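Hi C.,

You asked whether I'd gotten around to modeling the 430-residue construct. I have! Everything is below, sequence then structure, no commentary in between.
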Amino acid sequence: MATTITMPQLGETVTEGTVAQWLKKVGDSVDKYEAFVEVSTDKVNAEVPSPVTGTIREVLVKEGETVATGTPIAVIDEVGAAAPPAPPPAEAPKAAAAPAPAPASSNGAGSSAVSNGTPDSALRAASPAVRRLAREHHVDVRTIKGTGTNGRVTADDVLAAASMGPSAAVGQAIASATPAAPRTAAPPPSGTSTYGEPIPGTVVPLNQARRIIAERMVESKHTAPHAWSMVEIDVSNVWKWRTREKDRFERETGHKLTLLPFFIRAVVESLAAFPLMNGKFTPEGIYVNKDVNVGVAIGLPTNLVVPVIKNADQLSIKGLAIAAGELIDKARRNKLGVDDLSGGTFTVNNNGANGSWASAPIINAGQAGIVTMEAVIKKPVVRDDDSIAIRHMMNSCLSLDHRVVDGYVASGFLADLKKRLERMGPEGSL
C-alpha cells in the first residue's frame, strides 16, 4: 500500500512550507518515525518523521520549493505492499551478475539517520540545526567525526571543527575514516558572506527563514494599520526586589532572574483589564482570545524567533522566570519545537537588553499588539512632593493594530501597565 505524505502545518498560523532538504531519496528505505525530509517555515526548521515503514517511491516537491500545507510532497510504499513489476527475464542475469558495492565506499543511502562512518551518512546523522550551523561556519559535516550518540555530529563538534580551520577538520576526518580512501571537502569558497558573518562589499544570500520573515513583516505592516504609544515607568522598586532575590533564585532554579518575568506578570494582569488587547482582527469581527499566551521576541545572531509562554496569566513571577529562561535557552541551542513557537496571543519584546531607549516594533500577524521593555536608566526625577531623586526609569512602547483597538483602549492599557509595575516591590513573594 502506498502512503502519500503532505506538507505538514507547523503552527496554527502557518499556511505553507519549504522543502529545505530531503534526508532520503527515491529507493531509500525509511523506518516509521524516522525523519526523511526537513521542512522550513518562517517559524521553525523541522525534520518530518515518516508515519510508516517502507521505501520512498516518489518525491513530488524539489528542495527549495515552497508549497501550501496539505500539498502532497512524497509517496512511500509501505512494507508488505505489492512489489513493483520484476524486470524482463533478459535483464535478470545482468542484474544478478552486478557486483555488490564495497561496504567501505558505500554511501549508506538506505540506512537510518545514524552515522556508520561514511561521509554521506554523517551528513544525514546531523540535525537540521547542526547542518545549518555547519553551513554558517563553512564546515562540511561529512568531514567531522561525531561525538554524539551512535556517532551523531553535534553542535559542539561543528564549532570545534570550525575553530581548527578547514584543513584541521579534514585531517580529523581522515584520521577517523575507514581504511578505504575518505572523501574530503574542498575548502570553503573565499569571500562567502552569511547573515551571522557578513562581509563588507558582498551580498548575503537570503535563506528561506529570512525570506519568509521579510515577507511576513511587510505583510503585517501592509495589512494592519500600526499605531504607536509610549510611557515612562519608574521601576526602582522592581529593580530593588529583583536585586535582592536574583542570587538566591539562580542558586535554586539554575535560571537568571531578570526584569522580564516581572514585566510579563504586569502585562498579563493588564491584558485581563483590557481584554481587547488580547484579541485579533478577523473578517467576521474582533476575536477575543480566551487563553493568554505571551510570545517573547528573541534575537539570535542569524534569526529572530518568538517562542510562546502558554497560559502566562496562570504563572507566578517565579514560574514566568523559569518558563522564559527555558525558552531562551532552547532558542540559543536551536532546540525550539513547533509547539514552542505557536499559539501566541500577545508579544513582549525586550529591546532594552541591547540598550534600546525607544522603538516601534512590528506586530506579529494575528495579534493586536506588541509591547517593549526598553533600557532601564538611572536619572533624576521630580517626585510628587517636588523633591528630586535618582530613580531607575524605563520606557515601554506599544505598537497596536488600529483595526482592533483605538488609542483610548491602548493608552488605558499602557497606563494600567505603568501603574502595576510601579506598585511592584520592593518586598513581595515571587
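If it helps when you're writing up: Residues 209-423 form a domain with the Chloramphenicol Acetyltransferase fold (CATH 3.30.559.10).

Thanks,
B.
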